[in-house]
C-alpha cells in the first residue's frame, strides 16, 4: 500500500469517527451549553500533568536502555518530545520511527537495540491497558458479553507477559513460535521483523533479573495511572457525574484502544470516539461527552506540541531531518 493511500485511509477513518462522535444537529445547543459549563481553570494543571507523562516515559525508556549504558536523560526526553510532536502534526505516526532514530544517532547506540526497546515499551503499554480494561469490567456494571471480553483481555495480558519472560530466557518454544509467525510475512518484512525481534530479545536479556523487570513494569503502571488521572480530572472539569477511579480507567483503556487504529495526525476523531464509547458505559450522552473529549484531547495535544516545538528549536531539527529519520537515517548535520 502506497504512502498516499495509507494517509487517505487514515484520514477517512478519522472523518468517520468524527461523524460517529458528533450528536445530531438538534442537540448542538446542548453541546454549546456543555462547553460553557467546563471549568477551564483546570486546563493549565492538566497540561502540566500531560507534560509530566512525557518525563515518566523518558525515565522508563532510560531504564529499558540501561543495558546499553547510562544514557543521559536529556537526549531521551528530547527525542520523546520530538517524536510525540511528529505524531500530533504529521501523518502515519512518523514519531514512532523518528524518536528511536534520533536517539540512536545522537547517542551512538545500536539502532536495532533502540528499536527493540521501543517495541518493549509498546508491549508493556498494551499489557497495562489490557489489565486496566479487565479491571474496568469488574468495577463497572456491564453486560455479560463485555465482562467475558474483559476477562479474556486479562488472560491475554498474562499470556503476553509470559511470552516476554520466555523470550528473555530465549526459551526454544517461544523462539520457534515467533519465527513461525514471521513466516506468514512477505520476505522483505520478514527480515526486518526478525531483526527487530532479536534486538527486542537482546534488550530483554540486558535488563537483568526479575527485580529490574518488575521496576520497569511498575513504571508502566505508574505512567498509565498518571495518564488516567488526566482523564479523571477532566471529568471533574467538565462536571460529568462519573466515578473518578472507574471512569478514568475506562476512559484511558478504551481511548488507548481507539487511537491504536489508523487516523489523521493527532488522533483526531478516534480519540473523541473512544471517549464517547467509554462514557456511554456510565450513561453519558454524546452531547455531554463530545465537549469532554475535545477538552481532554486539547490539553494533552497542546502539551505535546509545545514541548515538541521547544526541542525542535533547541536541537535545530528541521522537517527535512524528520523526513530523513522516517526513512531510517538522519541528516549528517544532526550526527
Mind explaining what this structure looks like?
It is globular and about 55 Å long. It is 78% helix and 0% strand. Helix 6 packs across helix 9. The protein has 14 helices and no strands. It is mostly helical. The chain has one domain.
Which SSEs are present, and which pair or pack?
Elements: H1 3-21, H2 28-37, H3 43-64, H4 73-89, H5 95-107, H6 111-139, H7 144-168, H8 172-182, H9 187-207, H10 210-237, H11 244-259, H12 270-280, H13 286-315, H14 319-326
Count of discrete structural domains = 1
What level of helicity do the residues show?
over 70%
**Number of DSSP strand runs:** 0
Beta fraction: under 5%
What is the 3D form? Answer: globular
N-to-C SSE string, H for helix and E for strand: HHHHHHHHHHHHHH
Average pLDDT score: 88
- Rg over CA atoms, rounded to whole Å, is 20 Å
Q: What is the terminal separation in angstroms? A: 32 Å
The low-confidence parts are 329-335
Mind summarizing the main beta sheet?
none
Please work out how many helical segments DSSP would assign: 14
**Structural class of the secondary elements?**
mainly alpha
Task: Describe this protein with a few key phrases.
disordered C terminus, mainly alpha, 335 residues
Short characterization:
The chain has helices spanning 3-21, 28-37, 43-64, 73-89, 95-107, 111-139, 144-168, 172-182, 187-207, 210-237, 244-259, 270-280, 286-315, 319-326. With 335 residues, the chain is mostly helical.
